[in-house]
Every structure is written in structure tokens, then in C-alpha cells.
Amino acid sequence: MSNHDTGHEASNELVTHEPGALPDRFEDPGHPEHHDRLGDNDPKANKKAERQVVALFGISVIATIGFLVAYFALPPGETPESMLRSNLALGLGLALSLLGIGFAAVHWAKALMNDHEKSEDRHLQRSSDENRAAAVTALKDGAADSAIGRRGVLQGAMISALALFPLAIVVPFVGNIGDDWNVSKFRHTMWRKGTKLATDPTGRPIKAADVTIGSVFHVIPEDLHEAEHPLDEKAKAVVLLVRLDPADLTEAEDRKGWSYDGIVAYSKICTHVGCPVALYEQQTHHLLCPCHQSTFDVADGAKVVFGPAKRPLPQLPITVDDEGYLIAQSDFTEPVGPSYWERLAR
After folding, report:
1. Are residues 189 and 313 part of one domain?
2. What residues make up the domain containing 79?
3. In what residue span(s) does the Rieske domain sit (predicted)?
4. Pick from 305, 306, 303: which is nearest to 292 by CA?
5. Which end is more exposed in the chain, N or C (fewer Cβ atoms within 10 Å of the end residue's Cβ)?
6. Quick check: is 164 in a domain?
7. Are residues 88 and 205 in the same domain?
8. Do 71 and 196 belong to one domain?
9. Total structural domains in the chain?
10. Hey, what long-range contacts does 173-179 have (CB within 8 A, 24 or more apart)?
11. Are residues 202 and 287 in the same domain?
């Protein structure tokens, strides 16, 4: 159908005569038709939306208070159940506190603030003094449009939520200042001369005869349950036990007595940021950290072969006792886990 048939003016046609070429300009379609919201014409609906925003801010306030109560009333403790209970309460409090503020801000903007679409022409980066003055006026008009000055309850709810929420971050931070700065506790673990290597989590001692070539055991000290804080001690003392063909082992001269008939034991704590290293690839003898893919060569002193880690995994010197059980010769000879400011580089 031609332009004359449709009654359109030829000057408004935005096509070119060259196939595939883009038009030189596009007609400004303008703003879409504005549709009033229910609250724009119904004062009761507008007031209802305001009460909803206040309620959302109120939820945030209550959740923040709940977080603080849970932080002091539900300490993590030493059992998995107490840690689960504490983390669940803290997580729900923090989530509801943030969600309350976020939903309140979104609902306020959508239901109470002006929703007329506006557009402005592009200008040079440095606006004229008149435009800068107009921008300041527009900001003032926006603040007036939010009606925060005329909505005392809403203003109070917003200020309360925003003022209380930082406590959910500050209180735990302040509460962790103190003993946690004592880095000397990272220098030693529960491993001692003669401590039997036991399976995790059963605590069953391991005999060297039970470890076949290619097998992997997750290991803890046999007497871990006797520790005052067993979970804290386990976090430092966990070990991965692997048996290789002795011909595949490459051992430093000062460590030739640290293994037993191809059985080697290394800390499971990644030297990058402390994730559990437990993915063993039997063919390559590589040990992978699932967090950031640091890779260690178990056959060669657990040296780093890939990834962000900068240190080999600390090796636990082992041997067997008179009954054939695997035992530690000593504690690790270096601190386990990531670097810290008092740990010397090597």
C-alpha cells in the first residue's frame, strides 16, 4: 500500500532507498499514555499505601532488634545444633532487616512518588548556570514530591530502620574484637607425638594395613573428643591421608622419614583462604581446592601446581606404633592454613 493510500505525509517516512541501510533519523515516539494509579485519585488508597510502607520499615526495625537479641541470646556454642540455631536466627534477622528497607523504598517510589515520565534533551557536560540552578530546583521538587516532610509517621519509620540496621553489622564486629586477634593459637594443633590417626567423623584408629594404594582417608586426632573446644581444634587439625606407590613419591631430604610405605598426610586447610581441600585425583596425584581451584601435588610435597595459593599444604609427620596403627611423630612443623602477619614466608 502506498503512502498516498494511507494518507501519511511523505516527509515523515523514515526509510531509505538502499537495501539494508539504516534510516538517517528516527521519529520521536513521545511518552506513552499516562495511567493514573488508584492512589492518585483515591485518598484512602494513598493512605493505605503509606501505611504499607511504614509497616515494611517496621518489619526492618523489628528484624534488626531480633538480630541483636539472637546475637547475645543464641551464641554459636560447640555443637552443630547450637551453631545451626544461631546462624538461622542471625540470618533471618539480617535478611528481614534488609528486605524490609528494600521493599519499603521500592513500594514508596512506585505507590507514593510522582510516576509521570519525563525526558530532557542532551546538553554539554558542563551545564550553564541556569541549568545548574534548575537542577537544584528539580532536586528540591523531588524531595517535596516524596512528601516525606508531610508524612511524619513514614519519615520516622524510615529513619528508625536506617538508623538501627548498621547495628547488625557493628555489634558482631565489635563483639569479635579481643581474643580473635591472638594469632598464636594458629601455630599449633592437637597433633602430638604418638597421637593415633582416626577416621573422620567416627574416630576409629587407622592401621597402615587398611590403607591401600590410591585410597584416601579424612583424618582427625583420636582424642579430639577430649578437647575443650573440639570444633575449634578440628578446624585446625583435619588431615587428608593418601597412600601412593612409594616409587611415585618425591620427598625432600629432610622429610624422607615423614611418610610410611607411601602413606602421606597433609593438612586439609587450603593455604589460600582456608577452604577444605579434599578433591583427590588418583591418576595425577593432584589435590584440588573447590573454592578457588588451587591445586596441590600430593606426590611432591603437596606443592602448588595451579591456582592462587602460594604455599604447599603443611605435612604431618607420621609412622606406625607396635600394633600397626598410624600415629603422628609430632605436630605440624609450620602453622596450617592461610598466611597471617606473624607467619614467615618461605
Report:
1. yes
2. 38-117+127-177
3. 236-327
4. 306
5. N
6. yes
7. no
8. no
9. 2
10. 175/71
11. yes
Q: Is residue 306 part of a domain?
A: yes
- Is 340 among the domain residues? no
Own/partner contacts of 298-302, CB < 8 Å, gap of 24 or more, are 298/242, 298/244, 298/264, 298/266, 299/244, 299/248, 299/249, 299/250, 300/250, 301/250, 301/251, 301/252, 301/255, 302/266
Based on the fold, state whether residues 305 and 196 are members of the same structural domain: yes
Residue 245 lies in a domain: yes
**Model pTM score:** 0.55
- Alpha-carbon distance values, 134 to 113, 127, 137, 140, 293 (Å): 20, 10, 5, 10, 54
Structure-block grid coordinates of residue 83: 551453631
Q: Same structural domain for residues 233 and 138?
A: no
- Residue 58 has, within 13 A of its CA and on its CB side, a CA count of 8
The cell for 104 is 519499603
Same domain, 190 and 259: yes
Boundary residue ending a domain (156, 177, 198): 177
Which of 252, 240, 343 is closest to 289 using CA atoms? Answer: 240
Cα separation, 171 vs 174, whole angstroms: 5
Grid coordinates representing 79 are 555443637
pLDDT digits (tens), the chain, 346 positions? 444 444 444 444 444 456 666 666 777 777 888 888 888 888 899 899 999 999 999 999 999 999 999 999 998 877 788 888 999 999 999 999 999 999 999 999 888 888 878 777 776 677 778 888 888 888 887 777 766 666 778 888 888 888 888 888 888 777 666 555 666 777 889 999 999 999 998 999 999 999 999 999 999 999 998 888 888 899 999 999 999 999 999 999 999 899 999 999 999 999 999 999 989 998 999 999 999 999 999 999 999 999 999 999 999 999 999 999 999 999 999 999 988 765 654 4
